[in-house]
Write a structure and sequence with these properties.
With about 220 residues, the protein is mainly beta. The protein contains no helices and 14 strands.
């Protein structure tokens, strides 16, 4: 992952690049297993081959079984990953400034399940997340998905916040992906890299999320 630096808005801005195997160490996984559930999650680096670029494999098994003897836990069945907080600088916390860019771009190969992209900023409310559905049009094939930064929906603990507040684009703390469809069974999403861009030709622009649709549960994982 690159540190902030001088750049022009015409140049794509790399956020996470899984061609470097060390990038995996800069990320963390989360699931309902953290609260006693039975879902399992892994984020592994896969080296390049003659037919595949190097990438990260986000995979595991979703379970909706509730932990015994913990009646306060009423909902399970989720898994996620995000980048860890980056090392602080002399000027404070190291954050991304994506304000000059229109889109978040993700190079992925999906299994077709209901994934969400999660963006966390250095906001007044630390548990806020900005979320958008990761729409894959060609499951099983590599594709680049673009999401307009304006289309992200602000949530807190699975609830859409109204009125919506504009994302603090100058202070982005983390980017990650979560699975919240609560369908028991295996999942497998491949991610090559994530970057900010102004070039719509980089890929297909994702469909705009209907406010509140599918935004439950992801925000409950550890951040």
């Amino acid at each position: 992952m690159r540190q902030e630096g001088l750049r022009g808005a015409s140049t794509p801005y790399e956020l996470i690049d899984f061609s470097d195997p060390e990038t995996i160490q800069e990320c963390k996984t989360m699931s309902d297993a953290d609260i006693g559930g039975f879902s399992r999650v892994s984020l592994d680096h896969v080296t390049h081959t003659a037919t595949e670029p190097a990438h990260a494999r986000f995979h595991g098994t979703i379970s909706i079984d509730l932990p015994p003897n913990r009646p306060q836990i009423q909902r399970t069945g989720y898994a996620a990953w995000r980048n860890r907080d980056r090392p602080a600088t002399l000027f404070g916390r190291s954050l991304w400034d994506i304000d000059p860019y229109t889109y978040l771009a993700l190079k992925i190969k999906s299994d077709g399940r209901k994934y969400f992209v999660n963006v966390q900023t250095e906001s007044i409310v630390p548990t806020d997340l900005h979320q958008h559905r990761l729409y894959a049009r060609r499951p099983g094939e590599w594709e680049t998905v673009l999401i307009n930064w304006n289309d992200f929906v602000r949530t807190n603990h699975g609830v859409v916040i109204n009125p919506q507040a504009e994302m603090l684009r100058q202070r982005v703390r983390s980017v990650g992906i979560g699975l919240i469809d609560r369908v028991p069974g295996q999942f497998d999403l491949v991610v090559g890299k994530i970057w900010a861009t102004n070039d719509a030709a980089d890929g297909k622009v994702g469909e705009e999320t209907t406010a509140g649709a599918g935004c439950s549960q992801t925000a409950t994982v550890e951040k």
